[in-house]
Amino acid sequence: MSVFFIGGVNRSGTTLLQSILCSDSTTNPLIHEASYLRNIVEAYVFGMQKFEEHNKYYFSSVEDMRYFTAGWAKSFLDKTRNRYPEAEHLVLKHPPLTPRFPAIFDLLSSIGEDPKFIIIIRDPRDVAASLVRVGERLRNKGESEGNTLPRNMNLLGNLYMQCYMPALASQHPPYKNSLTIIKYEDLVNNPQAVIEKIRQTSGLKLNEFNASEDWKHDDIDYDELKHNKNAWLSELWGKKLSNARVGSYKNILKPEEITLLEQVCAGPLKTFGYT
């Protein structure tokens, strides 16, 4: 049994990618964020940082602390497996976990789990434009979360960088072998090639996935999200593949905002071929 972690910054297509893997009959259905796991992983990362100062008084070694925390993480995975007993593989997503993918690999591989990571990359200008819209909706609802997404390209560009760079920079060979990277634009413009790549790297058959049909094996209640005016809800969720949002930043961001964003995210723009 594998555990697939979907990674990427918010608004990069992580839910879409999760829906594709969850269309397979051997996985759990599409479900909401695995945010609880974040607390476990952050405890491990912080514990490593503070081992000599604090945690050597509680654990006999770094390995002892890793094994203890890995058991906590496994308990969470097993709890999820018990919720979806028909699933042979788990597919989990929570974008803030993305920078911690190397740490998740350390934890889970140390106890015999088979973690695999699929990261979706999207043009940072389209990501920022989408986050601008989310921030505006949150502030219009009077929700404090909107204050974390101001119309500030320096902040949003750095959010993009801080999400991807730790996960992509790790040179640990076993971790790199567990990692697959795809581009959102390739997925929505040429889905057959990308789906085949996912099949080969994941081992999933994905026979029920159809780019021209609505999402399958999906437990998300979109009517409830609409009723609650969820600011993160995308009009594309639950529906057939669409490239309607590619390049949408041109209609949302100002020229000076685009220029600043291109400076902050110059590395990924060049690396991933965004012009």
Account of the 3D structure:
The structure is a single chain. With about 280 residues, the chain is of the alpha/beta class. It has a single domain (about 1-270), classed as P-loop containing nucleotide triphosphate hydrolases (Rossmann fold, 3-Layer(aba) Sandwich). Helix content is about 50%, strand content about 10%. The chain is built from 12 helices and 4 strands, in the order βαααβαβαααβααααα. Strands 2-1-3-4 form a 4-stranded parallel sheet, sandwiched between helices. The longest helix is centred in the N-terminal third of the chain and has 22 residues, at about 60-85. The protein is globular. The mean pLDDT is about 95.
Topology:
Layout: E1 2-7, H1 14-22, H2 35-49, H3 62-83, E2 90-93, H4 101-109, E3 114-121, H5 124-140, H6 153-169, H7 173-177, E4 179-183, H8 184-189, H9 191-202, H10 222-227, H11 255-264, H12 266-271
Parallel strand pairs: 1-2, 1-3, 3-4
Structural class estimated from helices and strands: alpha/beta
What name is given to the CATH topology? Rossmann fold
Strand content: 5-15%
**What's the CATH first level?**
Alpha Beta
Q: Outline the biggest β-sheet.
A: 4 strands, parallel
Summarize the helix and strand pattern as letters. EHHHEHEHHHEHHHHH
Number of helices: 12
Poorly predicted residue ranges: none
Fourth-tier CATH superfamily name: P-loop containing nucleotide triphosphate hydrolases
- According to DSSP, the number of beta strands is 4
Overall pLDDT confidence: 96
Helicity level: 40-55%
Whole-number count of domains: 1
Tell me, briefly, the overall form: globular
CATH architecture: 3-Layer(aba) Sandwich
Strand order of the largest sheet: 2-1-3-4
